[in-house]
Amino acid sequence: MGQTQTAPPDISCPAFDLLPDLICMEPVSNTGTMHFNTAWRQQADALGMPLPFSEWLPALVPADQAEITRLLRDITPSDRFRSTSFRILNPDGHTRWFLLRLVQCPATNDGEAVRLLILTDIHEQKRHEEALLQKAAIRDRMLNASVDCIKEIAKDGTLVHMNTAGCEALGVDSISGFGMRWLDLLPPEAHLPGDAALKDAAEGQNARFMGISQLAGQPVRHWDNMLTPLLNPDQSVETILCVSRDVTIQREHEQRIALLLNELSHRSKNMLAIFQALIRRTVPDPTAPFVKVLEERITSIARSQDLLIHGEWTGATVHDVVTSQTAVAGDFPPTRLRIEGDPELQFVPDTADRIGLAIYELTTNAIKYGALSNDTGTVTVSWGLCDEEDKPVFRMCWKETGGPAVARPERRGFGSVVIEHNPRSIPGASSSCRHEPDGTIWTFSAPAENVVRCSTQLF
């Protein structure tokens, strides 16, 4: 196995032979008897080295030799404990990690000071640490490849780690060690919503808020901050993951769209005003009743357009359409003008125009001839979604009760077209208007996907 060795005088310490660690006990003065336990002797034999550790330097990986030499050379009698890790190069060419612990015991009255050299095999532990470090390095490279600002935030709001994009955005040195409060890196106006989001995340809830950042001499940047609590197995919050996405360009586009929509609103209102002026100047008698009716219908269209523009032309809620078009009735109490339906349900733009004009016509008829023309009648406007043949259907109803007796009109004018025929132009839609003795009943139905947004979320 190894070369023939002349062992130095040995101190008998049989208890050390029972331990797996390699143990050498020697006098601090480096003279006198020494002890090497069985594990130490076996390792020296495998390396083909003498027993004293100072003779093992040639078997150490060259990069570790200087550290071991320094430790053995610089230790003083007052030093009680030193430790370091190093690699031994085995004869087969493989290396193995060991932990060296050097413990000095003070001299007793009847003896001299001794020291213990304890070598512990930590090779598997080192391999595990290296694997973890490699995974951490891969994680960091993945995070640094992202253009989003990705942060780990402690529950107290201090910054634990941040990727390269985040460091560049907030002006933080990536080797600073972090530890500063995250919100202190943001302008004051971001602190209030940021504090609220951090509190929610620290309590185990997902949170989100819009914030800004600004470095000296640079324009403001807008961020969509999403905070996610990372939980322990017992569901307690360990730390908080925050992903901040730069939405500056999106905000600029939104502002530009808002400006264009406002301009569109202004121009469309001007166009409708021009139509009204042309009507007054064209007809022989501008004070004729039909002129007023026509102007009111144009105003109804304008109200629907206002709602659509306010919703950035994505639609308008059914509730807003109904309330804006029934506003011509004046301040009727809720007991007489009842509006019942999901306030969040939203018409698509084409539907908002058609249904809005129909509701306006029904309102004006109710004021002139129907349930709103006396002191006791009521109008109920209701809407909702129902499931028919596994498909969502939107239904809406206008129902009058308690008004004067209603007779079916002898002729069907433009109002009838607006109330019945115009809504039917929506694909799959049907509408009807019945004049019952107790009041008018108007109904409308259509496939939900053709008239409202996000209809399927209710099924």
From TrEMBL:
InterPro entries: HATPase_C_sf, PAS-assoc_C, PAS-like_dom_sf, PAS_4, Sig_transdc_His_kinase_HWE. Residues 82-134 form the PAC domain. It holds the Pfam family PAS_4. The keyword Kinase applies. GO terms for molecular function: ATP binding; protein histidine kinase activity. Keywords: ATP-binding, Kinase, Nucleotide-binding, Phosphoprotein, Repeat, Transferase. This is histidine kinase. The lineage of its organism: Bacteria, Pseudomonadati, Pseudomonadota, Alphaproteobacteria, Acetobacterales. The keyword Kinase applies.
